[in-house]
């Protein structure tokens, strides 16, 4: 079976031996057999055991924020598949409110663009945004580096990861990437069925839901990542703040109201849904696609039919589709101790 933290460590222990006596072997990045090739350039930043451990420490380090209270893990909580459960939009430093829901951190090696509204196309640069954004961490990178340099813990960890005690922005970003690249979710029931592991099969309702999914949803939420990585307008009514989505990054009129297509993995843990967390349940999400799609500018053509907007979906079909979506939840991922704060 493929581990939830695919390839970070193999834990092997003798029978009846306690955890401290386990043999830990670092494997690096290992692609799940049912996944495509990643798009991240590993030639420039190959994950190492020391690099991943440094990245994990930095991910949970509150000194990345101005007043040393907010870490990456504050808004990306493992038990919520690295989202901020319970908030429609993210809460940052001084409990300031952002404008968007915290996106999950998983399977980032296959991402070409980041954030709901785009604007960042390199994982090694992505952390700059939350660190420097007023509503999130509200800090300067120079200040972060200076704070880290005051801690012997980090001088030794940077030396182990990069060969010297020098702490700089490039190394800092690469270490964070190494940890996030190995946050791989690939052990859901769906994955085990696709890999024919342990005799796993879909129930009749799940199988019928899978057929419905392929007919009605897979154009945007393509397998096995359950997103095509594109930016689309799915017909949400504009909110009070009138978030323009991808347009904010590109200033192209054709990008108004387009947001990144999210993965459908781990939906059990990532409520609320949409870029602004407006839907509290998956039932509400499907009701939107059934009857609430708005004719906003740049509405995706897949949601514009001659006779209607949205998707034709009966109550019975909705129930079966929800049954299939439940097979995409990966409990091993959200409970993996190697992803947790140490």
Oligomer: single chain
Q: Name the overall outline.
A: globular
| Residues in helix, % | 25-40%
According to CATH, the fold-level topology of the largest domain is: Cytochrome Bc1 Complex, Chain D, domain 2
The succession of helices and strands, N to C, reads EEHHHHHHHHEHEHHH
**Number of helices, where a helix is a run of at least 4 consecutive DSSP H or I residues:** 12
Radius of gyration: 21 Å
**CATH superfamily of the largest domain, please?**
Cytochrome c-like domain
Strand order of the largest sheet: 1-2
Termini distance? Answer: 25 Å
Percentage beta strand = under 5%
Provide the CATH top-level class of the largest domain: Mainly Alpha
State the CATH architecture of the largest domain. Answer: Orthogonal Bundle
Compute the number of strand runs.
4
Profile the largest sheet: 2 strands, antiparallel
What would you note in describing this structure?
This protein is mainly alpha-helical and 342 residues long. The protein has 2 domains: 151 residues, Cytochrome Bc1 Complex, Chain D, domain 2 (Orthogonal Bundle); 140 residues, Cytochrome c-like domain (Cytochrome Bc1 Complex, Chain D, domain 2), CATH 1.10.760.10. The strands form 2 sheets. Strands 1-2 form a two-stranded antiparallel ribbon. The protein has a two-stranded antiparallel ribbon with strand order 3-4. The longest helix has 13 residues. The protein starts with 8 loop residues before the first strand and ends in a 7-residue tail after the last helix.
């Amino acid at each position: 079976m493929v581990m939830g933290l695919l390839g970070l460590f193999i834990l092997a222990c003798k029978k009846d031996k306690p955890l401290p006596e386990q043999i830990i072997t670092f494997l690096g990045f290992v692609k799940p057999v049912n996944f495509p090739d990643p798009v991240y350039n590993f030639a420039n930043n190959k994950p190492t055991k020391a690099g991943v451990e440094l990245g994990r420490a930095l991910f949970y380090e509150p000194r990345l924020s101005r007043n040393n209270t907010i870490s990456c893990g504050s808004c990306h909580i493992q038990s919520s598949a690295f989202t901020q459960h319970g908030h429609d939009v993210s809460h940052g430093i001084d409990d300031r409110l952002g404008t968007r829901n915290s996106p999950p951190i998983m399977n980032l090696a296959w991402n070409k663009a980041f954030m709901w509204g785009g604007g960042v196309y390199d994982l090694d640069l992505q952390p700059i945004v939350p660190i420097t954004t007023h509503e999130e961490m509200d800090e300067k990178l120079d200040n972060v580096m200076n704070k880290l340099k005051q801690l012997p813990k980090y001088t030794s960890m940077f030396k182990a990861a990069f060969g010297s005690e020098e702490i700089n922005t490039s190394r800092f970003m690469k270490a964070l990437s190494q940890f996030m690249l190995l946050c791989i979710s690939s052990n859901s029931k769906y994955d085990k069925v696709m890999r024919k592991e342990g005799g796993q099969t879909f129930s009749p309702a799940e199988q019928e839901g899978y057929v419905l999914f392929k007919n009605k949803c897979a154009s945007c939420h393509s397998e096995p990542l359950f997103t095509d990585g594109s930016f689309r307008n799915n017909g949400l009514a504009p909110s009070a703040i009138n978030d323009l989505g991808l347009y904010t990054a590109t200033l192209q009129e054709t990008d108004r109201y387009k947001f990144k297509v999210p993965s459908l993995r781990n939906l059990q843990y990532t409520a609320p849904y949409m870029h602004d967390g407006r839907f509290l349940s998956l039932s509400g999400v499907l009701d939107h696609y059934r009857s609430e799609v708005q004719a906003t500018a740049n509405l995706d053509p897949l949601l514009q039919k001659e006779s209607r907007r949205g998707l034709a979906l009966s109550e019975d079909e909705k129930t079966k589709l929800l049954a299939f979506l439940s097979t995409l939840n990966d409990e091993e991922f959200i409970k993996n101790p190697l992803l947790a704060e140490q």
